[in-house]
Amino acid sequence: MPGKDVLPPGPKRDLVAELYVHYRLAARPPLPKIAALTGTESNPHKVSRETIRRLLTGTTTSQWAVVDALLIALCQLQDRDPDGRRWPEPEDSRWDENDPTTCREHLRRLWNDDIDGLEPDEAPATPPAAPAPVPPARQPSGGWGGSASPAADDPWAASFPLPVNAPAQPGGYSDEPPF
Question: pLDDT per residue over 76-105, tens digit each?
Fold first, then answer.
């Protein structure tokens, strides 16, 4: 388990600490042994030993399928069901009669908190509502083009102003094409 100077308290440390609980209960198996258990029939997601190392040191969070595959492998080494009660023995000091949480549920909650960057017991914030779109102001209609100004009807007028020495036509248009 990384020290607090390397992995400060917070959601990521809580996730790594929970993974370490299972790692210790599995008798600290070598990473190649854990990696070999992933990708098997009971655990279809193959995880490399480097990814396992990075998860256990807190240098990555990874996808849920990867974290879940690691949990399944560690539970397999403990001869434990990942969907069983987290602390199954009443003699365990961590036993809480009112907490039926499974190993997988608890780890998934910690993983979500880490992904979301939430501190424990912090409710997810709802994003502020987007402002309602403002309809464009309506121009007074002046005939065929729908505008009182001839320059507003001409798509080339704003992009290509008249050359300085060009003779002005009525309405400010040049006879020359803009290209």
Answer: 998 888 878 776 555 555 545 666 778 889
Under 8 Å CB-to-CB from 87, ≥6 apart: which residues? Answer: 94, 95, 96, 99
> 147 to each of 79, 129, 152, 154, 172, how far by Cα in Å?
79, 35, 7, 10, 16
pLDDT digits (tens, 9 = 90+) for 136-160: 655 555 555 555 555 555 555 555 5
Long-range contacts of 117-124 (CB under 8 A, 24+ apart): 117/11, 118/11, 119/10, 119/11, 120/11, 120/14
Hey, where are the domains in the chain? 11-89+97-116
Read off the amino acid at residue 78.
Q
Distance (Å, rounded) from C-alpha 60 to C-alpha 111? 11
Closest CA to 62 of 16, 8, 10, 5: 16
Q: In the numeric block, which tokens belong to residue 177? A: 């094409």
